[in-house]
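Translate sequence into structure tokens.
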Amino acid sequence: METIAEQSDVFPKLNVEEEPELSATEVESMCMNCHENGTTRLLLTQIPFYKEVVIMSFSCDHCGYENNEIQPGGEIAPKGIEFRTEIVTPRDLNRRVVKSDFSCIRIEELDFEIPAQSQKGEVTTVEGIIDRVVRGLDQDQPVRRIQHPEAAEQIDAFISNLQKLKELERPFTLTLTDISGNSFVENPNAPQKDLATTISYFQRTKEQNHILGIFAHDEVADKPSNDAVEESVKLESVPEEVDSLLKPIREGAWPLEELQGEVLQFKTHCPECAAACDTNMKVTTIPHFKEVVIMATVCDNCGLRTNEVKPGGGIEEQGVKIEVSVRGRIDFARDVLKSESCSLHIRELECEVGAGALGGRFTTIEGLLTAMREQLVESTGMFMDSNDAETKERMDKFFGELDAAIAGNKPLTIVMDDPTGNSYVQSLNDDGTPDTALRIIRYHRSYDQNEELGLNDMKTENYAEEEKTEEADKKENC
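Result follows.
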């Protein structure tokens, strides 16, 4: 228990009232400006509503040079992220941006790109990104004008174009791509949908995983020698019942009914404090819907409780849009299955939560509203203390209306849109009569939706024949 407690205190929460003096580590390091010795201060902490970070501050008493950096201290996100933002108004220039070391920034109109790992991670604004580029380009211009006047003239013209972007002589598009998934672009209209920003997630390639230091077991394992190969061949000949620790279930040995009643358990780590904990998994069937897999994690160290639901079947032939009219406490008890691909929209509050925000979960209407509130607080609360009066007033008004809805004092209409068709809302009429407060619409997915789900390139028939043809072609080429 002492080891777990020490591990959870590595990143103390950034709370001035409870922890007025957080201990920072001071390290003597060389100044990159005058090459004398300066001091680097390191602080491991948790930013509220964000994640664990390492804050670094360097100062040199000899030349006065200072430098501040921020790096993520938590886990790397499972997917990369891309923000594509249209900068149209001065308010867009003031959008706060959290960028990691692996962020690649591109301005489409100038065909200009800041490569990943060329700058340290920082918390800045869109205008601050442009200012940093201008300072970097203008740094050696006096010497360049003497030695390479033509190149200096081209750089001056490019700096002038960047200054015009700051003056918003024309709108421009800023694209931030981060393979680590640890970047963020502020939504100034939160909790309403950001119409100027498109957020997309992508699977990293093997090369991108290697850049982040992520390797598969077979990539880091030593290549087996000839003796090891011979030994493995001998082991394969040993009967499975004698040699194997985990034995596969033989056909008919465990009926499906018993498998559905069994609760499976495996070891994992808490996403909040990284302590070891158990995750329980169970296969169950939702009446009038389909088979699902429910996973629940409880951490004894910090008390965190999470649940996640995965559809047991495949993607349905059609997408589904479910509209629920929440008239009072009676509708709060409806069971809800939300898949990972399902987005949520509350019409009366003009609030929209993206598909990947809440993950897959099996809950109720009340639990869904509460989870949406927590998600919105996490996504908008990072800069809550530095927002202007107008933004604070708008956020307070929105959360007041949402709290009134959760208390059952405000009617709402919740729209769930799931292109995979794997979401479900319980009907209150068990006798088969229509539920007037529940409307279900099925639709055919668009090409872009199928592309995002990976269905356009998926082949489920006669794929074995293509493999045989490819093998035959290889043999002929040999």
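Note: The longest strand covers residues 37-46.
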